[in-house]
Design goal:
With 72 residues, the protein is mainly alpha-helical. The protein contains 3 helices and no strands. It is rod-shaped.
Length: 72
């Protein structure tokens, strides 16, 4: 699952950010890694949303279109 792989990458990057802060790494380097973690998390969010729209929403629309619309 692509979202899981991205989430694990984000976790590793965030762990690196914590270590960099603890070791007093030069701030711009930490910021660059933090931006990388943010980008990965945005990708996770996008993948999850696409998956949700392509599976859960379609299934709910097939089951009960009116209820699916009002529940959103």
């Amino acid at each position: 699952m692509k979202s899981l792989k991205l989430a694990k990458q984000a976790r590793g990057t965030l762990e690196a950010v914590v270590k960099m802060i603890e070791s007093d790494t030069y701030c711009p380097e930490i910021i660059q890694q933090a931006d990388s973690a943010i980008g990965l998390l945005k990708s996770v969010k996008k993948e999850l949303l696409v998956g949700h729209l392509n599976t859960c929403v379609i299934q709910k629309m097939k089951e009960n279109k009116e209820k699916a619309i009002t529940d959103c």
